[in-house]
């Protein structure tokens, strides 16, 4: 695949899932005007059709970017996930096609932490059940089973950006923060690491999940794990729907093995606001259900729009892959006097030699070269002194493209 960079108004941008208008404004400010904005997500077949003309794609958590979809994406240069999670994208397939994927690693962190903090208090006070009763004409004025958060043990599973932010906020309420993480983590404030998941589950009054979706976190919490939790404790999941076995949770709540739960993410989520939400948890009084809105605040969404659009623009304008989640990271100065070539290739021996041999053969001076590789892919950005009027750029691109193992070549400017 090879592209001589298009004029900005020819670059087709598709934004799905109602990403914040700040993204559109950011693109437009930088001269990108060919933007299609769709409020919902598209299913696999619709995406396979639509993606064929798209250079930059923006999605949130609903759009599944499978290997099949990516196989139709001949023009696609980069994907922006306007969220933290990137599990909805086949990152390996994207990388192997030279498609760079970006996300917003902390623009909605605070929003999730605040929601979880609110849920902790609501659940410990049995507000979901009292609220449901009141809506039906009931009056459950009783302290039975209601507790303060102060002094209770908060067990955080996954002590990353959200887990640590939540831990700090919870300490302000006087909670005792314990966490379990597969990595060694700096314990902030008075938080304490716990050596194993069962140990954390046994001692916590509130268990909250803040792990990514990975093969290891799939069904991390099932009937066996719930059985080790205190019957007075509550479970919160605002991470990914595949982390908790929902049937096991529903039966534990019905059998009063747990005192309550707050669930924001589900194994199957509606693809739009018009679709009916089905779940075995529906109707359980002491279960707070929210429609995957942990990160959905105006502040977070506006910031994410600017952040991710900015990353896509920087990649489009100067080739920078800084903070890409599936790609070697190259951060670049702009060279006003040079032309810039991008070469994405399979990481195999001799690639750089082959690239530089072409420059030597064509008597082109290289004024800057930036290479990064990971185990599969190499990404080299080459600034060259070529007269903008000279036709040699076409020949360079052709010869770069002919190097065996080349995935994509582009001339930026
Ligand atoms: N409900 C919502 O709207 C939102 C949900 N999320 C979800 O929250 C997740 C966490 O976000 P961040 O804190 O920003 O991620 P992060 O990457 O900063 O932290 C994740 C932590 O989980 C740990 N971890 C991974 N596997 C583990 C395992 N098997 N057991 C214990 N710990 C494990 C990691 O070592 C890391 O410390 C995201 O991946 C996303 O899926 C994020 C934002 C909004
Ligand atoms: O707001 C969204 O669409 C998804 C939020 C989320 O789950 C994430 O940021 O990972």
From TrEMBL:
<dbReference type="GO" id="GO:0047545">
    <property type="term" value="F:(S)-2-hydroxyglutarate dehydrogenase activity"/>
</dbReference>
<dbReference type="InterPro" id="IPR029752">
    <property type="entry name" value="D-isomer_DH_CS1"/>
</dbReference>
<dbReference type="InterPro" id="IPR050418">
    <property type="entry name" value="D-iso_2-hydroxyacid_DH_PdxB"/>
</dbReference>
<dbReference type="InterPro" id="IPR036291">
    <property type="entry name" value="NAD(P)-bd_dom_sf"/>
</dbReference>
<dbReference type="GO" id="GO:0006564">
    <property type="term" value="P:L-serine biosynthetic process"/>
</dbReference>
<keyword id="KW-0560">Oxidoreductase</keyword>
<dbReference type="InterPro" id="IPR029753">
    <property type="entry name" value="D-isomer_DH_CS"/>
</dbReference>
<dbReference type="Pfam" id="PF02826">
    <property type="entry name" value="2-Hacid_dh_C"/>
</dbReference>
<comment type="function">
    <text>Catalyzes the reversible oxidation of 3-phospho-D-glycerate to 3-phosphonooxypyruvate, the first step of the phosphorylated L-serine biosynthesis pathway. Also catalyzes the reversible oxidation of 2-hydroxyglutarate to 2-oxoglutarate.</text>
</comment>
<dbReference type="Pfam" id="PF00389">
    <property type="entry name" value="2-Hacid_dh"/>
</dbReference>
<dbReference type="InterPro" id="IPR006139">
    <property type="entry name" value="D-isomer_2_OHA_DH_cat_dom"/>
</dbReference>
<dbReference type="Pfam" id="PF22629">
    <property type="entry name" value="ACT_AHAS_ss"/>
</dbReference>
<dbReference type="InterPro" id="IPR054480">
    <property type="entry name" value="AHAS_small-like_ACT"/>
</dbReference>
<dbReference type="InterPro" id="IPR006140">
    <property type="entry name" value="D-isomer_DH_NAD-bd"/>
</dbReference>
<dbReference type="GO" id="GO:0051287">
    <property type="term" value="F:NAD binding"/>
</dbReference>
<dbReference type="InterPro" id="IPR002912">
    <property type="entry name" value="ACT_dom"/>
</dbReference>
<keyword id="KW-0520">NAD</keyword>
<dbReference type="InterPro" id="IPR045865">
    <property type="entry name" value="ACT-like_dom_sf"/>
</dbReference>
<feature type="domain" description="ACT">
    <location>
        <begin position="340"/>
        <end position="413"/>
    </location>
</feature>
<protein>
    <recommendedName>
        <fullName>D-3-phosphoglycerate dehydrogenase</fullName>
        <ecNumber>1.1.1.399</ecNumber>
        <ecNumber>1.1.1.95</ecNumber>
    </recommendedName>
</protein>
<comment type="similarity">
    <text>Belongs to the D-isomer specific 2-hydroxyacid dehydrogenase family.</text>
</comment>
<comment type="pathway">
    <text>Amino-acid biosynthesis; L-serine biosynthesis; L-serine from 3-phospho-D-glycerate: step 1/3.</text>
</comment>
<dbReference type="GO" id="GO:0004617">
    <property type="term" value="F:phosphoglycerate dehydrogenase activity"/>
</dbReference>
């Amino acid at each position: 695949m090879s592209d001589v960079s298009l004029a900005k108004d020819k670059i087709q941008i598709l934004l799905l899932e109602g990403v914040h208008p700040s993204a559109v404004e950011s693109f437009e400010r930088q001269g990108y005007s060919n933007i299609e904005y769709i409020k919902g997500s598209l299913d696999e077949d619709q995406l396979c059709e639509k993606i064929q003309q798209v250079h930059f794609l923006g999605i949130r958590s609903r759009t599944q970017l499978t290997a099949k979809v990516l196989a139709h994406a001949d023009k696609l240069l980069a994907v922006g996930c306007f969220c933290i999670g990137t599990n909805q994208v086949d990152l390996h397939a994207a990388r192997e096609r030279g498609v760079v994927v970006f996300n917003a690693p902390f623009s909605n962190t605070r929003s999730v932490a605040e929601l979880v903090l609110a849920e902790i208090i609501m659940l410990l006070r049995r507000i979901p059940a009292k609220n449901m009763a009141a809506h039906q004409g009931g009056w459950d004025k009783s302290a039975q089973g209601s507790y303060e958060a102060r002094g209770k043990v908060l067990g955080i599973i996954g002590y990353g950006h959200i887990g640590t932010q939540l831990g700090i906020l919870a300490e302000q309420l006087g909670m005792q923060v314990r966490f379990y993480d597969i990595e060694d983590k700096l314990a902030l404030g008075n938080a304490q690491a716990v050596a194993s998941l069962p140990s954390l589950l046994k001692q916590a009054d509130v268990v909250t999940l803040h792990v990514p979706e990975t093969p290891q976190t799939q069904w991390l919490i099932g009937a066996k794990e719930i059985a080790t939790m205190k019957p007075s404790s509550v479970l919160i999941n605002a991470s990914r729907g595949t982390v908790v076995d929902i049937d096991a949770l529903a039966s534990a709540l019905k059998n009063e093995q747990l005192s309550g739960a707050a669930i924001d993410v589900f194994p199957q989520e509606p693809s739009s606001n018009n679709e009916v939400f089905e779940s075995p948890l529906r109707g359980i009084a002491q279960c707070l259900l929210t429609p995957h809105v942990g990160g959905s605040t105006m502040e977070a969404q506006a910031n994410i729009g600017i952040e991710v659009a900015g990353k896509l623009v920087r990649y489009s304008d100067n080739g920078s892959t800084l903070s890409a989640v599936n790609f070697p990271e190259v951060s670049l100065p702009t060279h006003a006097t040079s032309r810039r070539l991008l070469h994405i290739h399979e990481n195999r021996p001799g690639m750089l030699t082959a690239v530089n041999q072409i420059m030597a053969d064509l008597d082109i001076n290289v004024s800057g070269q930036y290479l990064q590789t990971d185990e599969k892919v190499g990404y080299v950005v080459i600034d060259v002194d070529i007269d903008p009027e000279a036709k040699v750029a076409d020949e360079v691109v052709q010869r770069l493209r002919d190097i065996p193992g080349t995935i994509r070549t582009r001339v930026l400017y």
